[in-house]
Amino acid sequence: MSQRREGTKPQLVFENVWKKNDPVWHSKVQQLWKKNFPAMPQQTLTQRVHEVVFAITTTEGEVVAVSTAYKTYVEQLKNHLYGFRCFVDPAYRVPGLTTKILVETRNWLEEIHQTDGTETDRCIGVITMVENERLAKYRNEAIWRGSGMVYIGNTPQGKHLRVYYFKKALIG
Fold it and tell me: Of the N and C termini of the chain, which has fewer Cβ atoms inside 10 Å?
């Protein structure tokens, strides 16, 4: 397993694995999650590997970050959106990486959303809950410049909610 030297910028590769159902990728992604979330139930691991959009790897092929998306109906917005999650191994966290992952994932989902599903469950955008308290505190602009994600309120637990609507998305 490679380890990044402090102060060096990693060379990372974005691999689109959306709906590829590849056991090799599933195993690599699960290794990342098991290393960082040892208590994550196997059922959750099994479900989430099928939601991976991008697996971000080192040049040696080690998965060090992932983005996931799943369809969810947001009652308040009366529409389906892709729920977005992102995780970067702490050893590979560098400024701007999560924004790049978000933008790449958002762009891919925007590209496919018209053909992903039926008219009744077609997603009109991406929604994310900001779980990182530091991010919520210091990145408190109403619209995140780098990704276009718009603050729309808080969860009952006080987590920020952000949405990006796809171009040409129509409210059902």
Answer: N
